[in-house]
Amino acid sequence: MSEGERLTELAKRRGFYFPSSSAYGGAAGFWTYGPQGAALKSNIEDAWRDRYVVKEGHQEISAPDVMPEPVFEASGHLDGFDDMIVECGECGATHRADHLVEDNTDIEEAESLPNEEVMDLIAEHGIECPSCHASLADQPVDNFNLMFETNIGPGSSSPGYLRPETAQGIFVEFPQLSEYARNQLPFGVAQIGKAYRNEISPRKSLVRVREFTQAELEHFIDPEEDEPPLAEVEDVVLPLYSAAAQESEDGGQRELTVREAVDEGVVESEWVAYYLGVSREWYERVGVDMDRFRYRQHLAGERAHYASDCWDAESEVDGDWIEITGFAYRGDYDLSKHAEHSGEDYTVFKQYDEPITVERATVDPDMSYLGPEFGGDAGAVADALEALAERNPDAFDDDEVTVEVDGESHTVPVEQTNFSVDEVTENGEHIRPHVVEPSFGVGRIIYTVLAHSYESDEVDGEERTYLDLPPEQAPTTVGVFPLMDKDGMADLATDIAEDLRAAGLSVTYDDSGAIGRRYRRQDEVGTPYCVTVDYESLEDGGAQRASESASGDEPRAGTVTVRERDTTEQKRLPIDGLADRLGRLATGDLTFDDL
Ligand code: ATP
User: Fold this and answer.
1) 501 and 585 in one domain?
2) GO MF terms on file (predicted)?
3) If you take atom 22 of ligand 1, which residue's CA is the nearest one?
4) In whole angstroms, how far apart are CA 463 and each of 210, 331, 479, 524?
5) 90 belongs to a structural domain
6) Measured between alpha carbons, how far is residue 512 from residues 481, 533, 559 in Å?
7) Cβ 214 under 6 angstroms from ligand 1
8) Which residue range(s) make up the domain with 98?
9) Same domain, 583 and 500
10) What is the distance between the alpha carbons of residues 347 and 335, in angstroms, rounded to a whole number?
11) What is the CATH number for 191?
12) Which residues of the chain have pLDDT under 70?
């Protein structure tokens, strides 16, 4: 069984995730997170929020999943958010053409190639339809737009789309968000939410789905002045697989610190380098195996239309590299596009330290001359003169000045323009912020973390499977078991479980089956600690504790067994202070050896 198949089997059996709507035959690319998966997902999202919102001092918003068409006209998604599709002439199945090439040749990033070249490669390598094995040679490779379309309200006059990335919900609202940030750059706005892509061929369970969760941060900066706090991460070592290395014969991955990567120009943008450093530490925190992880730079043809420097964080599962996060320097592309299409102001007013005096060229054209002379074009001619005065005041040096309106030249005597150059005092200027974006796919991170934490060993002569998830991410922190459901053991165990829950720990109570089987169940969902109440717990004062704490009195002495998942080592600990100790174990303030 491959690593991925093993994972999908465990995920279904133990309630991490499973295909949705299977009672009705299901729909490819949609998955439901079960109780363990939903808890793991929310822990990973909380860890993301903690690092990228709280610790960075950014703000979080929640925008709608459906947005009207003009948003995606402006963002470029309507025209350009396409993947390459090839349809089988025999059975009609559709496939992602670039993936077929990658799966059947040594080419790694066929997405960066033109459609015609992909079509030629399909023919050259005799690639067949994966569904019916007919030849796909000579089948056209077309573009397929990945957005899900819908209608807003009855009728079709107001088309809308399910957002293909959460980012647009931030960019569109920039004017308001900037106001909330008191128009002070830099500031960051984050969002964790659903994104939808009508993928041509969903595959590898959570890796390529049609509805998924993204955690995105848009960090708005002044490109002239703002610098990232690089010193905070400068010593973090980055496993970098640059575009140059990918293109050279003997090029491979290099380990460079953040500082070295910037100094050597391997990572062009200091902001991108900063987030690569922050993220390298974050992936480790949530359980990505750093021996199966790299940052890969986009090849020139692969880069999104808006981005100047792009790196992907990639994890390895089953020998394949999966993009789990995209890091992009998006420049001012998004804000410029929304400004152009909406006519709204997507700039920030940047106040100067001291007001400055500048010479400003202005015109005040005589409309009683322009009107009769240019008729319906008079207003446009006046606007063009104004723009020209600002752009190139020297054009007004002669007796006449010429402007173009709709491709037609109009000449105006300079004296009719009332051209003048005056000294004005300015307090600041409007600037268009640039954007740095780390964009995380939560599902792919979950898939990676589960694959990388999957372990097996032998315990008491039997094979055991367990997930060595970091305690902070584990869906359940503590399993509480009565050894047997008699003589007050269940009462005491229930009481302890309640105490632990009251202390904020995530607890599972389990009294069914042999104790060994209960340990295995928790091992398989990655529960780091299990507490067992046994006869000794009752003998050393626990029974009294159970009855007294039920009546509201202070708890008394009593001990339980605490078992650690990875080593299966067991220790006897007092019930008093148990919640505190387990809480500190879970946050890493205490180790099992310290107990
Ligand atoms: P790919 O090339 O794999 O289609 P992408 O480059 O289009 O991904 P981005 O647009 O950069 O992906 O999206 C940011 C993140 O969202 C990705 O790094 C990934 O983790 C996640 N993501 C994108 N598409 C999907 C999908 N279909 N299923 C699951 N996660 C996805």
Assistant:
1) yes
2) ATP binding; glycine-tRNA ligase activity
3) 441
4) 36, 53, 21, 12
5) yes
6) 9, 14, 22
7) yes
8) 82-145
9) yes
10) 8
11) 3.30.930.10
12) 305-307, 540-557
